[in-house]
TrEMBL record:
Belongs to the class-III pyridoxal-phosphate-dependent aminotransferase family. This is Aspartate aminotransferase family protein. PANTHER family: ADENOSYLMETHIONINE-8-AMINO-7-OXONONANOATE AMINOTRANSFERASE (PTHR42684), BETA-ALANINE--PYRUVATE AMINOTRANSFERASE (PTHR42684:SF1). Its cofactor is pyridoxal 5'-phosphate. GO terms for biological process: biotin biosynthetic process. It comes from the Bacteria. Gene3D superfamilies: Aspartate Aminotransferase, domain 1, Type I PLP-dependent aspartate aminotransferase-like (Major domain). One of its GO terms (molecular function) is pyridoxal phosphate binding. The keyword tRNA processing does not apply. The keyword Transferase applies.
Length: 444
């Protein structure tokens, strides 16, 4: 093309970038361009400050532009920009793995690095399949997900995921997959604060799948302890415990996708700690580096790692990995981020702000179109009544109006999802809910 290296393309020309999960034509007709970020605010190209009500995409838990994280990334780029992780190592990769093992409960002690939540999901599923095979239970190839589950966009993740549109265009994908029912029961649980009272028995559907397929064919169950991307669906009281007990009874691995719930979102380090339920594998990403450098991690219990360590010592135990697994910039960003979480007690801050957050969330009860409100930690789901025959329109309009009013929210279907940086304060929380209340009042 005429534009050579070093010539910045015109920002007026938006045609080349095929935007992900975006209505491209609509966006390009009326772009929303972010050019800077500091603390809990974005700066737009027309110089406005927009309060980040979503921590980017549920990831910037330490806020934006934290000097300690910025400095760590800059220094790492100068010191060691890249090192292979296949048959080679660098110290920060091991330091970070140790650090994560120390943060996770029980014997969740071994860490496999990826670059995203999607890669973490697929990595966890592959580890589960290979684990059973290593132990001579190679018939366990079936993977169980859940309706309304989101495990990213790669083939494994969309196969166990429960979002039709994520599969609709891509063929049959993994066979030998089945799904538990989702746990969203607004007819019984609407306007619950924290965990809803009804629905633990929905975990028992796993017994039905075991009876249908045979336990000896099932490798793993993967669920989000709290489903974020499909609308902030809290686990009913007792549900996760029941799922754990059933997996134990039938020798099935339990995978928690903690890509959103990890790193303080619920007011604890991880959801497994928060709910006191120990899974066999935990997947993470997002908050691991506070969104600054792409990185994910899969953490497994000791017995899983050990099962792979029984063959010849010169043999590669797991045929899996990414060029950028444990990328030095990501490791440096993650170590600095974990330091910030600790030194600023951001998980404790989340827990301390949660009651006020809850009050403000449920203060929207009675506002126009609001049919359910859900909250936990610093996360909220605000479900709006869809417009007749026009699902998603009302919530999307709320998103546009909030953005104009200086607030970034996220919508999924007709549900508004909020998940601000954990560095937020009460005044910002007031701004979020005052803005939302005003927008709901003027929305038709
Ligand atoms: N798993 C869960 C629970 C998520 O919420 C997400 C992203 O929102 C993913 C996986 C996918 O992560 P990524 O977009 O980094 O691939």
């Amino acid at each position: 093309t005429a534009q050579g290296a070093g010539v910045p393309p015109s920002v007026n020309d938006l045609s080349s970038f095929w935007m992900p999960f975006t209505a491209n034509r609509q966006f390009k007709a009326a772009p929303r361009m972010l050019v800077g970020a500091q603390g809990v605010h974005y700066t737009t190209d027309d110089g406005r400050q927009v309060l980040d009500g979503t921590a980017g995409l549920w990831c910037c838990n330490a806020g934006h532009g934290h000097p300690a994280i910025v400095q760590a990334i800059q220094a790492q780029a100068a010191e060691l920009d890249y090192a292979p992780a296949f048959q080679m190592g660098h110290p920060k990769a091991f330091a970070l793995a140790n650090r994560l093992a120390g943060m996770l409960p029980g014997d969740l002690d071994h860490v496999f690095f990826t670059n995203s939540g999607s890669e973490s999901a697929d990595t966890a599923l592959k580890i589960a399949l290979a684990y059973h095979r290593m132990r001579g239970e190679g018939s366990r190839t079936r993977l169980i997900g859940r309706e309304r589950g989101y495990h990213g966009v790669n083939f494994g993740g969309i196969s166990v995921g429960g979002i039709t549109n994520n599969r609709r265009f891509f063929g049959t994908l993994l066979t030998g997959v089945d799904h538990l029912p989702h746990t969203h029961r607004p007819e019984k649980n609407a306007f619950s604060r924290g965990q809803p009272a009804h629905g633990a028995e929905l975990a028992d559907d796993l017994e039905r799948l075991v009876a249908l397929h045979g336990a000896e064919t099932i490798a793993a169950v993967i669920v989000e302890p709290m489903a974020g991307s499909t609308g902030v669906l809290m686990p009913p009281k007792g549900y996760l415990e029941r799922l754990r007990a059933l997996c134990d009874r039938h020798g099935i691995l339990l995978i928690f996708d903690e890509v959103i719930t990890g790193f303080g979102r619920l007011g604890s380090s991880f959801a497994c700690e928060h709910f006191g339920v120990l899974p066999d594998i935990v997947t993470t990403a997002k908050g691991l580096t506070s969104g600054t450098v792409p990185m994910g991690a899969v953490v497994t219990r000791k017995g899983i790692y050990d099962a792979f360590m029984s063959g010849p010592e010169t043999a590669i135990e797991l045929f899996h990995g990414y060029t950028y697994s444990a990328h030095p910039l990501a490791c440096a960003a993650a170590l600095a981020t974990l330091d910030v979480y600790q030194s600023e007690d951001l998980f404790g801050r989340c827990a301390a702000l949660a009651p006020y957050w809850e009050e403000r969330v449920h203060g929207l009860k009675g506002k126009p179109h609001v049919i359910d409100l859900r909250n936990m930690g610093l996360i909220a789901g605000i479900e709006l009544e869809p417009r007749p025959a026009k699902p998603t329109e009302r919530a999307f309009e709320a998103f546009l109006k909030c953005y104009e009013a200086g607030l970034m929210i996220r919508t999924t279907g007709d549900i508004i999802a909020l998940s601000p940086p954990l560095t937020i304060d009460r005044e910002h929380i007031d701004t979020i809910f005052d803005t939302l209340a005003t927008v709901l009042d003027i929305l038709d």
